[in-house]
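Subject: mismatched residue count in predicted assembly?

I count 823 residues in my input, but I want to confirm that the predicted structure covers every chain. Input:
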Amino acid sequence: MTSIISFLIDHEVFAFDTLKVRNILELDKVTWVPNAKEYLKGVINLHGNIIPIADLRMMMGIENIENSQDTAVIVVSDDDKTESLIGFVVDGVKEVFDLEEADIKESVINGNTGLINTFTGSIRKNDEFIHIIDLVEVVKEIEK
Amino acid sequence: MIDKFKAKFVEESNDNVHDLEEALLLLEKDTENNEIIERIFRAMHTLKGGGAMFGFNQLSEFTHHLETVFDLVRNNKLSISDDIISMTFESIDHIKHMLEVGDVDDQEELDEQLAFIQRVQSYTNSDSPSAVAPQKSSETSGAKGDGSKTYLVGIKPNQDLLRNGTNPFYLLDDLHAMGDAKVIAYYEKVPQMEVFNPINNYCHWQVVLNTKESVNDIKDVFIFVEDECEITIEELGAGNLLASDDMVELITEAATHQQQLNKDVLVNVAATAKGGAAKKESKKKAQLKEHKISSMRVSSTKIDELVNLVSELVTIQAQLNLFAENDGNPAVLALAENIQKLSRQLRDNAFSISLIPLQSELMRFQRLVRDLSKDLGKDIDFVIEGGDIELDKNIIEHLTDPLLHIIRNAVDHGIGLPAERIKNGKSPKGTILFKAYYSGASVIVKVMDDGKGIDPEFIRKKAIAKGLIDAKTELSRKEIFDLVFLSGFSTKEQVTDVSGRGVGMDVVRKKIGEIRGEVSLDSEMGKGTTLTLELPMTLSIIDGLLVKVTGNQYVIPIANIEKIFAMDSVSFGKTFNHVVNIDDEQFSFIDMREAFETEVVNKGTEQLILVKYEDTKVGLLVDQVIGEYQTVVKPMGRFLKKQENISGASIMGDGTIAMVIDTNRLIHNNAIKKYRTKN
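Triage response: the counts match. Full output below for your records.
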């Protein structure tokens, strides 16, 4: 039994492992950081810690990025350390739900997903495919 | 000096013993766990080695035998039994005792030790450990474990006791009421009838008392006669010692012969009566009591947390000050001032806790120099000056690798072979001087060797050959020496074991940069090379200047700032190729908006901040200077580490973030860019 948190990026549904998620925030003012990668939008102050914000939509190569009321930041940490906290901007958070690991199938993804190429797997729920993003790989990409 | 080391050894060994106990407790639950057995073995090994080094020879010997047992266990030749575990626990107590008393020459103690060692050896000699007779102390049943203790209470009243109306028998009755008691009255001082004064007291008493009450409760009995009596209360041991016949006999004998009892005699009797159990008990008790804590180990995360909290406090306090000044209420102002005073003291205190002397790290280098120079056939003296200079522990941690590299370089490249040195008219023995001293808010560390020195021309040619600079580039002496810090620069042709693997001084600079330090090199041919590190004393709080660049706020450390100029459109008009003329002096400058790759909109109100960069000054053009700000620097986290121009971020009073600019890195990177674009 595992639990995932699903979210929207350009009308498609993706998900993170719930255990890695620390916070979900509204997209507020982000302080821009000079000379950083384009998708790194800057940093925010989260309870006195400086947390970088990466736009997952940009990382996935989405071209028409529009922020709406639903736009959210999912703060995750892949190793539980404060220095590893990072927020991802997504088009909207959907839901948290439990699933059996056996239900996770290999991801079949057609088309361009930009810098995000590795997925833990996909599941089908209510006629929708949910692709679970491999956080470790995303983090590696950002650290490159 | 040696005493200091001994004390340190005992302190560290106590940690080891503690670890040993902890591991043993774990092992008790999980007897097959090899990791735990390894841990125990290691701890014993350390104790053994350390013991021999610091003159605890008996400890060392004892631990050796114990270690042998665990070596067998480790190699699966002996399996862990409850017996071994309890034996080891007892051994640990014995080790503790030995740590406290050191080597002894008291025959009794020695015998005891020998017996213990034989007992330990019995595990290694015998093939079947179960054959070993259980050595559990033969506790007389009921004598122990009821929580009671036996005391020797001495009551010596002065002559005037009776005049105050005190009846000493009531005191004795009170003692009887507390538990089992045997009283001996001493009347040897009672004079002849002729001189006997009935209102004088001539007697004194000794009471062997078994009670569950504490020493303080016994003292309470005498609370009203404290001034007239000399009261002594000595603990003889746990359990009711009066239960033993020997004891009773001894007491009766003492009463008939009017012989004073003393603690040692009683304890001995009790010990023989209880097969040594009681004695050990009292030894252990004494140990528990005498142990005083003069220093303690605190996990470094706790200290980091403290420093962080204090840093927060300093920020908030600055806001409070600002508010109080604006508010103008004298009461608030006074409060704010007091809080400022307190927080300053607290800050100094918290920081001093996290400071440790450089010396602690330097010992290792002394050894390194010795070993390396032997290997290379060189004769080198490593001299330390200012080893007592204290630095933030985080800084010292970051310092080890760079220093290792620098010192290796000095041994390997700097100082030549004795023959070579004699030829150059130097003493065959080379010297590496490590010198540390305070300079303002920073600490300067210099590593100087009196070796061959480096030819600047050689560096220049090498840099050109490696494509690091253009052949036509004019460089100052300082800039040339600075080239060695570029990546991919290693001056030694052949890669040696000791140094010169291509990763070199650039790593040193990077590491030192991480702790906001600076490193520079200077050398004189034939005289030697000096590496200078300039380090901040603490990492978390800096005085900064708040500036604005394209809508964002940044902090520039004030320590680096020389002057601030207004860049009106007139002086701007005179700029050419990023060089500005101010007061008839020319400065190159970096437009921060360009450096940060943002839109450049000249409003004519820009300001130029002149900062120190090595031995020159470089201007930084910003949109606006806001003001001075004492700020707490927070790390940017793992994902922005590569962002060299920014050394951290600071959270402002209103919760917004201002990034702290690392001016040296910024200028360095932009200068590099210039070299590269020229190429």
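Residues 300-353 of chain B form one domain. Marking this ticket as 'not a bug'.
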